[in-house]
UniProtKB/TrEMBL annotation:
This is Tetraspanin. It comes from the Eukaryota. The lineage of its organism: Eukaryota, Metazoa, Chordata, Craniata, Vertebrata. The chain crosses the membrane at residues 12-36, 56-77, 84-108, 217-243. It is found in: Membrane. It is a multi-pass membrane protein. Its main location: membrane. Belongs to the tetraspanin (TM4SF) family. InterPro entries: Tetraspanin/Peripherin, Tetraspanin_animals, Tetraspanin_CS, Tetraspanin_EC2_sf. Keywords: Glycoprotein, Membrane, Transmembrane, Transmembrane helix.
Length: 247
């Protein structure tokens, strides 16, 4: 009976570690996508130290879980006590790190509010100054997502500008509609856009557009994180039970 119980724990642990392996692969994939994504999201990450750090933490956690899941599967199948102990200690550290990251994300969530981005935009945006990381990032985001400002073109009324003619408005060139949503895309009507003709401008704020674009992925990432934490907890329990059961 004891042998059957040990065998059951061994295969259950293998199953949990297989899910950890898959979870690590998913986090690794998401981390790589965020960092190399060509649609402009990587520039948002690069401009915000908190997001930049979070992306690399996700990448590192994914890589560690990927490796750990593989080692846990090997330790369970081979019934190797050394591997099981190493697995338990390593996954405990990862579990605590992920828990700390989740608590920090909850504490600093106010840094991602509409008001925060609006204040930062009005304070640091320098329009067509592509040597400035913040301005270049915002221009790329507005072009890529066909949006303007945080709430809309009115955000730029408080941003200093130097019009070339009396017809031009505070609306930056990045808010103009393009035939193709990229920096290489031709502006539909530049003169009309800069003169304040609304039909040639992107009027919707970037906050709403990006939130809608990533809403599904945020819930998916949250569900995945909760699932990974639960699986890690069960894997640690089974690792200790299997460790104690191996003669």
């Amino acid at each position: 009976m004891e042998g059957d119980c040990l065998s059951c724990m061994k295969y259950l642990m293998f199953l949990f570690n297989f899910f950890i392996f898959l979870g690590g692969a998913c986090l690794l994939g998401v981390g790589i996508w965020v960092i190399v994504d060509p649609t402009g999201f990587r520039e948002i990450v690069a401009a915000n130290p908190l997001l930049f750090t979070g992306a690399y933490i996700m990448l590192a956690m994914g890589a560690m879980l990927f490796l750990l899941g593989f080692l846990g599967c090997c330790g369970a199948i081979r019934e190797n006590k050394c591997l099981l102990l190493f697995f338990f200690m390593f996954i405990l550290l990862i579990f605590l790190a992920e828990l700390s990251a989740a608590i920090l994300a909850f504490i600093f969530r106010e840094n991602l509010t509409r008001e925060f981005f609006t204040k930062e935009l009005k304070k640091h945006y320098q329009r067509n100054n592509n040597t400035d990381v913040f301005s270049s990032t915002w221009n790329s985001v507005m072009i890529t997502f066909a949006c303007c400002g945080v709430n809309g073109p009115e955000d730029f009324e408080a941003v200093p500008y130097f019009p070339l003619s009396s017809l031009e408005t505070a609306t930056p060139e990045a808010c103009c509609q393009r035939e193709l949503q990229s920096r290489e895309g031709m502006i539909v009507n530049k003169e009309g856009c800069l003169s304040g003709v609304e039909k040639f401008q992107n009027r919707q704020g970037c906050y709403t557009v990006i939130l809608n674009s990533f809403e599904t992925y945020v819930y998916l990432a949250g569900a995945l994180a909760i699932g990974v934490l639960a699986i890690e907890l069960f894997a640690m329990i089974f690792a200790m039970c299997l460790f104690r059961g191996i003669q």
